[in-house]
Design brief:
The structure holds 2 protein chains of 2 kinds.
Chain A (H helix, E strand, L loop, with lengths): L3 E4 L2 E4 L5 E7 L6 E7 L3 E10 L2 E4 L6 E7 L2 E6 L8 E8 L5 E3 L3 E5 L1
Parallel strand pairs in A: 2-11
Antiparallel strand pairs in A: 1-3, 3-8, 4-5, 4-9, 5-6, 7-8, 9-10, 9-11
Chain B lengths: L2 E3 L4 E5 L4 E3 L2 E3 L6 E7 L6 E7 L7 E2 L2 E6 L4 E6 L8 E10 L5 E5 L3 E6 L1
Parallel strand pairs in B: 2-12
Antiparallel strand pairs in B: 1-4, 3-9, 5-6, 5-10, 7-8, 8-9, 10-11, 10-12
The chains are: A mainly beta, B mainly beta.
Chain lengths: ~110, ~120
């Protein structure tokens, strides 16, 4: 158990509303990631963090922002949710030289 | 850019048989790593096995082994003696180096494996 949790686990929201997803880890790992999973695409990287206040964009970052004010929390924000952001969101942490462990996922539906 | 290709959308196998899930990759980096993850119907992503590009031997973890053929750029997952609990989606992934030592994973589209009793 890599000690990673996500909240909420499920959320339904309306188009145009802001949404924040939280990823929490208990083991002080430096690297954290946000991915989204859509049918036919596998998982794709949204943003990642390599330390407190240090973040960078992934391949599908448009419409998303992130923040990491402390080691254990990595927040993903949809400033104004759109239907194309309906997806399953996974947080991941790097726990060894190469291994990434994933959180349980958040299923987000934008109506 | 790195790319992972999984050409088998779905596979059906009889229980206790061995199964091979195909994965080919493309990269220009001399140093890379390949992963396999399992995603059961419950949705979590479970790490199975890792192979580094400089590893001399194929990786093994219990019933899982990775058939790494560098010249062919393939990294197939072999599951021996399949079990009903192996029914799941399987993803091949490659690590791509990013800023400050961060590593992005590039995923294939996945193969849905169904084990029949």
């Amino acid at each position: 158990d890599a000690g990673i949790t996500q909240s909420p686990r499920h959320k339904v929201t309306e188009t145009g509303t802001p949404v924040t997803l939280r990823c929490h880890q208990t083991e002080n790992h430096r690297y954290m990631y946000w991915y989204r999973q859509d049918p036919g695409h596998g998982l794709r990287l949204i943003h990642y963090s390599y330390g407190v206040k240090d973040t960078d964009k992934g391949e599908v970052s448009d419409g998303y922002s992130v923040s990491r004010s402390k080691t254990e929390d990595f927040l993903l924000t949809l400033e104004s949710a759109t239907s194309s952001q309906t997806s399953v969101y996974f947080c991941a942490i790097r726990v060894a030289a190469y291994e990434q462990y994933f959180g349980p996922g958040t299923r987000l539906t934008v109506t | 850019a790195q790319k992972i290709t999984q050409t088998q959308p779905g596979m059906f196998v009889q229980e206790k048989e061995a199964v091979t899930l195909d994965c080919t990759y493309d990269t220009s980096d001399p140093s890379y790593g390949l992963f396999w993850y399992k995603q059961p119907s419950s949705g979590e992503m479970i790490f199975l096995i890792y192979q580094g590009s400089y590893d001399q031997q194929n990786a093994t973890e219990g019933r899982y082994s990775l058939n790494f053929q560098k010249a062919r750029k393939s990294a197939n997952l072999v599951i021996s003696a399949s079990q009903l609990g192996d029914s799941a989606m399987y993803f091949c992934a490659m690590r791509e180096n990013r800023n400050q030592g961060a590593q992005k994973l590039v995923f294939g589209q996945g193969t849905r494996l169904t084990i029949n009793p």
